[in-house]
Input
Amino acid sequence: MSNETVLIIVNSVYQLLTAIHMKWTILNPYPVELLITDVTPGLVSLREQLISTKLFLRVLSGSVKDLNETIKKSEKEMTEVFKRGRTVLRWQLSEELADYREIYFSNFDFFARLLAHVYYDHPCRFLWYEDGFSSYVIDYLKEERSQINKHAQGREIRDKVEKALLYEPRLARRGDKIPNMRLPKINPKDIDFIEMLNNIFQYQKPEHDPAFVFLEQSFRAEGITGNELFLMEQCKNAVGANAFAVKPHPRNEINLPFNLGLTPKYEIRAPWELYLLNEQSTDKTILTICSNAALSAKLVLGLDIPTVMLYCLYDGKVLWKEDDVLKRYLEQFRVQFAGKNYYVPKTIYELKHILKYLGGQK
Output
């Protein structure tokens, strides 16, 4: 295997979109292998479509979701897994890994740290590519944030990672020492790229595609409590049931808004950004607490779509330890990057008037 080979690790559909984009653009000259994991349900099922594109040298799959739970175990248990590093990788991955020029990853999970340990003495660069707003606000390597950052092998990734690749580096507020580099935006006019993505994700426009779409977040999957369902109901009542739907988050295994009668079925298995690339519609209004998918229209695609952010009305903590940093990041986005169609209501009364202005019930 050529030592020019690059490996990209993918745990989510958003990461997969960015991985394909990187191969299409900045990594085009290099042979690239793709490793898709089971962290997001159903992601591995895209393997055959990815292979058919011939974009990647190899497309590997990995069962790492349970392995990542090791990060919660004792120091002794973590040490044992690190000691068996290569053997563990052979068991968890569909094929053996090669020697790499660079390894791109999005999450500082146990699997990424295990790779950093296995490749610690190799001339292999680790590059962190963006995974939404967490990549802008969380210092994942801060010692007091997690026990693994004090573990001898667990913290080796600190020595390996060279830079963070972000769509908008000027928004970064993490406070770590990792240099931020710019990822090029996705070109909404690149028809060949969009057609390839449509084939990979088997994109189909939803049959029911209302004017107002609420982007659910993965709060329930992460054990975060808050009033997201209440805010969904307020939005639905303000715009009318026929004009409203909730896009379920792929990490929430139960579609609770649908079960509660808050929304009809609204399934888009492709990334939200691919929906926007296909439809590029400015008559759609996006509603959310603070989903990165709502920001990515601007940050990733350069589109200005009506967006209502409800984080000022949310009564839970989006991030357990960095919630204040996130709020500063969102405010900086509003001031510097949001277009004229971006709204942040402070009260339910204000929310209802904004939705009425945007075409809700009179």
User: Anything to note?
Assistant: The mean pLDDT is 92.
